[in-house]
Amino acid sequence: MKLIFFRLLLFAIISTTLWSCAPTRSVLPLCYKENLVSASVGGPIIHYGKNITPIPYTSVTYSRGLSDTTTVFASFHPTAAVFGTFQMEVGMNRYIINNDSAKYAVTIAPILNFMRRDSINKFYPQIDVNFIKRSALHDNYFYAGLCNWFEMATQKINGDKQKNIWFPSPQVGYVWNTKKGLMFQTELKYLVPYKRNDYGPVEYLKPLIPYGGLGVYIGAAYKF
User: Of 150, 156, 197, 214, which is most buried with the most CB atoms under 10 A?
Assistant: First the structure.
């Protein structure tokens, strides 16, 4: 049974590389010279026997405040590495709007994803846009936005023409802050809602059958 699960996990890693495998990084930009170390687990929800479970993608991220409005970060994906795919990304998160009195903000995060498997290198640009609403009583906040992956290749690995270049995934999440620098995050993501996904050995949980899939992620971080 464990062998079957790991094979399904491997298939999912290969087949869903165009779907964001991690929650939003540094949802709110850090202050100047602040640091954040974070880890997350989660991914698309699949049917596994009679049960449903998220694929346990993992990622670790280091973020640093370049200024009070801009944060830079780099991430690595241990689960993908275990199954032979080196995956990492570098990016930045910046305020577009930051209204302190109304406790809301809008951010944009351009990201470059890099993957290497079997001597094949792939680059995927990504742009995330999020609306953040902070609580008036504490430092917790809600966010909603859109994760956008882009395929730059004109052909698929099998030589077929690449018809899709834009892979959007709406997302909502919540971040809890503690007074000791610890932060906890949960996120739901509707992965590529226009893409049919009713074939292959992995059956995904689909909000709108047979399109897209639902992903769930949890994470923890320490700010210092």
Answer: 197
Token pair listed for 185:
């995050």
Task: Select, from the ranges 11-20, 48-57, 101-110, 202-211, the one with the highest average predicted confidence (pLDDT).
Answer: 101-110
For the whole model, what pTM was predicted? Answer: 0.87
DSSP for 85-96 reads: -EEEEEEEEEEE
Task: Tell me the C-alpha distance between 14 and 34, whole Å.
Answer: 35
Read off the tokens for 42: 């989660």
The CATH number given to 2-223 is: 2.40.160
Where does the chain show beta strands of DSSP type E?
A: 35-48, 51-54, 58-65, 70-76, 86-99, 104-117, 120-134, 141-150, 166-177, 182-196, 203-204, 211-223
Does an H or E element contain 12, and which?
Answer: helix 2-15
- Among 46, 39, 45, 41, residue whose Cα is nearest residue 57: 41
Residue ranges per domain, the chain? 2-223
Confidence label for 137 from pLDDT (cuts 50, 70 and 90): confident
Measuring CA to CA, which residue among 166, 178, 143, 146 is closest to residue 26?
A: 143
CB-CB contact of 191 with 215 (8 Å): yes
What is the rounded distance in angstroms from the CA atom of residue 96 to the CA atom of residue 117? 36
